Amino acid sequence: MNTRFRTAWLVTAIAVSLAGCSKTQDPSAVTGLTPAPDAASPKADSPLSSKPQAVTIDQGTPIKVRTQTTLSTKSTKTGDRFTATLVEPIIVDGKVVAQGGSPVEGRVVNSDPGGRVKGVAILSVRLTQLRVGGREVEINTGVVARRAHTTKRKDATEVGIGAGIGAAIGAIAGGGQGAAIGAASGGAAGTGVVLATHGEPAVFPAESVLTFKLTAPLTVEPG
In which domain, by residue range, is 161 found? Predict the structure, then answer.
């Protein structure tokens, strides 16, 4: 075998050997690409979303609050605002939506001091706002009203006293007939005193516990 033929044979053998090595080599090592995952291998489970869901407080749900200041028809006007706090937490499906002690705001719906003699003072209020977490949420509730105590017995006493005093004055002045005239004039005078004064005010004292009910469902979005 001459030298030229031997050299050609060696080159061919080396080429064949290199070609065999390249076929068994990991393709990713040659191309630098990551091998595609095996389709049969199980995929890792993606974590479920933990985003909190909106909560709906049903219509008719009672909301019990404690007022912070005194409300009276003597000093409170229709449209005035007042503040209170939740006495009990609001719970929906076992979840606390609003903590006990949360601030609440309300509005005076009607503050009527009442007419003279016949009129009786009345004060009515409702809730307008509730704090849920760190947010103020608008709410709609029914009205809670309070009527002043009637003063009819007191008024009748004042009229009677007036008539008695008039009768005494009439008797001194002119005997029996004068007593009758005095009683009439005295009674009129007593009635005049009653007509000149208003009845007692309607009052919600400070620290009053009042229970309102939602008049519409309230949906609270997650904070």
Answer: 152-198
